[in-house]
Write a structure and sequence with these properties.
There is one protein chain. The protein is an all-alpha fold. The protein has one domain. The protein contains 3 helices and no strands. The protein starts with 8 loop residues before the first helix and ends in a 6-residue tail after the last helix. The relative contact order is 0.14.
């Protein structure tokens, strides 16, 4: 019970009990706010990481499709180049048998065209993979930044909780327990 005053003792006791209840509830409320803020931040970080991973997979699938398409077109391109070189370089052979020199020239042209097509396909695949790797790196960096922001929010919430507990303790005239 409080010291004797001009105010009714029941009112003074009621106000003291309410102040004590508020002081007792403050740490629990602050921790609830801290947990809610942390959960929200981590959920956002997980969502951002999932979205970034999905975009990276789509990029990798597109680059793989482009590379396979290029590889499958090598035969067609080399055959076309070889045919073009054969018709451009040699006069028509007699219908019975082509000469050995024309056959050798056609084989060499086909091999050169196929090698050029393979180099082009390899370069296309390398470029697509570099692009996909860059996208994955960017996604990972974005997820790390989101996680860092969540940790900063968690630390700020913990500091706010400690400050609130100290302010309530000071208002009640007591010292906070460690």
């Amino acid at each position: 019970m409080a010291f004797p005053t001009n105010v009714n003792d029941q009112i003074t006791d009621s106000v003291s009990q309410v102040n004590t209840k508020v002081l007792g509830d403050a740490p629990a409320i602050a921790m609830g706010n801290l947990f809610q803020a942390t959960a929200q931040a981590l959920a956002n970080a997980a969502h951002n990481a999932t979205e970034s991973q999905q975009q990276a997979y789509e990029t990798m699938q597109a680059s793989t499709t482009q590379g396979i398409s290029t590889l499958l077109s090598v035969d067609t391109a080399s055959a076309g180049e070889a045919t073009k070189e054969i018709f451009a370089a040699a006069p028509p052979a007699p219908p019975s048998e082509p000469s050995e020199a024309v056959t050798e020239q056609a084989i060499q042209a086909a091999i050169a065209a196929q090698e050029a097509a393979m180099r082009a396909a390899n370069q296309a695949v390398q470029a697509a993979m570099a692009s996909a790797n860059a996208a994955v790196q960017a996604a990972m960096q974005q997820a790390a930044q989101a996680l860092q922001a969540a940790m900063t929010q968690t630390q700020a919430a913990a500091q706010a909780q400690a400050a609130a507990a100290a302010a309530l303790a000071a208002a009640a005239g007591t010292l906070p327990e460690d």
